[in-house]
Amino acid sequence: MNIVGLNKQQLKGFTTSEDFQKFPFAPISSFREISHIHNPRAGENDILLFLAYDDDELAGYFGILPDDLTLANGEKIHFGWLSTLFVSENFRGMNIAPQLLFAAEKAYSQNLIVTEFTPSAERLYQKIGMFEDLQTKKAIRYYFKSNLAELLPSKKEVYEKNKKWLKRFDNLVNIFIPYLGKNKNHLYKISKSTDQNLEKFISRQQKNPIGRGAQEFHWMLDFPWLSTEKEQPNYLFSSFSKTYDMFWVSVYQNQQIVAAMLCSVRNGHLKVLYYFGNLNLTAEILPKIIRKYKIKMMTIYDDALNSAIAKTKTPKALYKRPLERKYMIHKAFRKKLGKDFDFNFTDGDGDFSFT
Ligand SMILES: CC(C)(COP(=O)(O)OP(=O)(O)OC[C@H]1O[C@@H](n2cnc3c(N)ncnc32)[C@H](O)[C@@H]1OP(=O)(O)O)[C@@H](O)C(=O)NCCC(=O)NCCS
User: Fold this and answer.
1) Alpha carbon distance 100, 121 (integer Å)
2) Ligand 1 in contact with 96 (CB < 6 A)?
3) What pLDDT, on a 0 to 100 scale, did the predictor assign at position 294?
4) Which residues are CB-neighbours of 56 under 8 A, at least 6 positions away?
5) 92 Cα: distance to centroid of ligand 1 (angstroms)
6) Angstrom distance (rounded) from CA 53 to CA 94
7) How many angstroms separate the alpha carbon of residue 123 from the centre of ligand 1?
8) Could you tell which of 3, 124, 327, 351 is best to mutate to test the pocket of ligand 1, judged by most ligand atoms within 8 Å of the CB?
9) Taking the model in full, what pTM does it have?
10) Rounded CA gap, 8 and 43, in Å?
11) Is 79 helix (H, G, I), strand (E, B) or coil?
C-alpha cells in the first residue's frame, strides 16, 4: 500500500489530468479541487487529499479541510477537518482507512476534528481509538411545506422506492399550503458578496475560536462545492444540486446594519450558516427569506437562534423534527487545548457551508 498526499500545488489541475480520467472512481470533484486550492487557511504544504494505491490501482482516498482556531491569548492553531473518507468496496476490510487516518494524523500533528460521520466511519474511529467525543450540537428541522420525500425514506425502504411518487404528492399538496405567520417590516438587503459596510460590521462582532471572517466568506461564496449543472461522475460525496444558492442578508435600522446572516438554500432547504449582530432581528427576518426562496424546510443547529425563532412565533412550521450533529476530536489535540476548551461551533463551520 502506497499513500500519496497532494498539497495545493499538486492538486491544481488534478481532476483534468490523464491519471484522473483513468481512475475507477473519482477521489475529488472538480469544484472541490478549485475550492481547496483557494482556501485562505490552507498552507502551501498542507496535504488536502491523500490517495491510497494498491500497486498502481487507486484503492481509497481521504480529503482534509485545513482551518485555524484562535486561542484567548491570540495564538493561532492550525488543524484539519476530516472531510471525505472512502475505500473502494474491493479493498474494504484491508486496513486501508486506518492507514489513511494515520497519514493525516502525522501531516496535521494530530490536530484533527471529525463530524457528520457515517455509521461505518464511526465504527472505524472507535476501533482505532484515536478520537474522543466533543459536545453534540442539537438542531431543529422546520418543515414549511409537505416534504414526505425527505421525511419518510430515512425510516423505511418502501418509501425510498417510492420517492418519485412522494415528491409528486408533495408538489401537489404544497399548492394548497400557504406560509403561516405575520411579517414584521424590517428593511433588509440580499447580496451575493460582502461590501465594506458589511465587512466592517462583521469584524466588530463576537466570534467563536474558528472565527471565519471576510476573507473566508469570500472564498466560500466564490468557490462552492456544488455544481448546478453536472454531477462529478463516480464520486461518492456531494457534487451536484439542482438548485443551490448562497447569499448574505443584511438587516438595517436607521441606515445602519444591525444584523447579518449568511444563508444557503439547496433544493428548497434553508440553512443559516453564520449570523452576526441582533439575534431577534435575525429571527424576525427569516419569514421573508422563507417566502422569497419558497423554502420547504430549514435546519438550525444554533440554540440561541432556535429560541429566538420560538419567541417570535414566526415562521410557523407545519412540523418540527429534532436532529443532532456529533463531533469527535483527536485525543492529543483535545489534551493540547485543555478539557474545557469550548469550540462553540457555528452551523457553517467545517465543510458544512459547502454542502
Ligand atoms: C468507512 C470505510 C472508509 C472503512 O474502510 P476500510 O479500509 O474497509 O476500513 P477497515 O479495513 O478498518 O475495515 C472496517 C471494517 O469493515 C469490515 N469489512 C471487512 N470486509 C469488508 C467488506 N468486504 N466490506 C465492508 N466491510 C468489510 C472489516 O472487518 C472492519 O471491521 P472491524 O471494525 O471489525 O475491523 C469504508 O467502509 C467506506 O469507504 N465506507 C463508505 C464511505 C463512508 O462511509 N465514508 C465515511 C464518510 S464520513
Assistant:
1) 13
2) yes
3) 92
4) none
5) 5
6) 12
7) 8
8) 124
9) 0.90
10) 8
11) strand
**Cell triple for residue 209?**
475560536
SS (H, E, C) 132-193: EECCCEEEEEEECCCCHHHHCCCCCHHHHHCHHHHHHHHHHHHCCCCCECCCCCCEEEEECC
206 C-alpha to center of ligand 1: Å?
41
Q: Alpha-carbon distance 144 to 180, whole Å?
A: 8
- Our answer on whether the CB atom of 152 is closer than 6 Å to any ligand 1 atom is no
Q: 145 phi and psi, to 5 degrees? A: -135, 165
Task: Give average pLDDT by consecutive 10-residue segment, the chain, 355 residues.
Answer: 97 97 97 98 98 97 98 96 97 97 98 94 95 96 81 69 76 64 74 94 95 96 97 97 96 93 97 97 92 94 95 81 97 96 96 94
DSSP string, 253-309: ETTEEEEEEEEEEETTEEEEEEEEE-HHHHHHHHHHHHHHTT-SEEEE--HHHHHHH
Residue whose Cα lies nearest atom 44 of ligand 1: it is 118
User: What strand order describes the sheet that includes 57-70?
Assistant: 2-6, 49-54, 57-70, 76-87, 112-115, 327-330, 131-133
Going by alpha carbons, the residue nearest to atom 15 of ligand 1 is 93
The alpha carbon dihedral of 133, 36, 40, 106 has a sign of: positive
- Where do we find the cell 476573507? 215
| Cα–Cα dist 21/238, whole Å | 19
Domains of the chain: 2-136+326-354 (3.40.630.30), 139-144+179-323 (3.40.630.30)
Distance from C-alpha of 42 to C-alpha of 66, rounded to nearest angstrom: 5
pLDDT of residue 82: 97
Across-strand partners of 60?
A: 52, 87
**Based on C-alpha coordinates, what's the Rg of the chain?**
21
Which residue is associated with the grid cell 456531494? Answer: 238
Predicted local distance difference test score (pLDDT) of residue 186: 77
